[in-house]
Amino acid sequence: MKQKVLKILVAVMVCLFIGFLSGFATQSSITDWYPTLNKPSFNPPNWIFAPVWTLLYILMGIAAGWVWGKGFHHLWVKTALYHFGFQLLFNASWSIVFFGFKNPLAALFIIVILLVLILLTIKWFRVVSKKAALLLIPYLLWVLFATFLNFKIWQLN
User: Measured between alpha carbons, how far is 13 from 119 in angstroms, rounded to an integer?
Assistant: First the structure.
């Protein structure tokens, strides 16, 4: 039991660290570039993003730790965690491209790939643990919303 809790804590910390690093790309642009963009009426206020992403990273970490706790020696666990790692890489790269490079179109391509990777991750997490897969559903829904928001921002600008 201790090992599983430790793996969940490590996975949560990794996810939060990725989110923290992504925040660096966001910081400068959120005050100078992002406010100048035309945004759709359903664009959430800026203050909502940090708490939502913090919660999502925690849920993602719990899910990944839960899967990891099933034993990394198992092929399905490895496959699930590899997919998780790839989607986490695309998650971080979206912030860098959208906010760092200020390129909504390239970010749109990245977030579409991210969606596919999240779906594959959920599929493989479900093979290992249905509970872990369910923990990723809020993340999937938020990224679906973010994809549509990204598309509209690109379209309006």
Answer: 22
- 146: CB partners within 8 A, 6+ apart: 111
What's the pLDDT at 31? 85
C-beta pairs of 42-45 under 8 Å, 24+ apart in sequence: 42/149, 43/149, 43/153
Class of the CATH domain delimited by 2-156: mainly alpha
* Distance, CA of 128 to CA of 156 (rounded, Å): 42
Per-residue three-class SS string for 102-153:
CCHHHHHHHHHHHHHHHHHHHHHHHHHCHHHHHHCHHHHHHHHHHHHHHHHH
Instruction: Write the single-letter amino acid at 71.
Output: G
Nearest CA to 117 among 156, 148, 79? 79
Give Cα 115 distance to the centre of its chain: 9
Q: What is the pTM of this model?
A: 0.95
Average pLDDT score, the chain:
95
pLDDT at res. 56? 98
Give the separation between CA 12 and CA 31, rounded to whole angstroms: 28
Cβ neighbours of residue 25 closer than 8 Å, sequence gap 6 or more: 95, 96, 99, 100
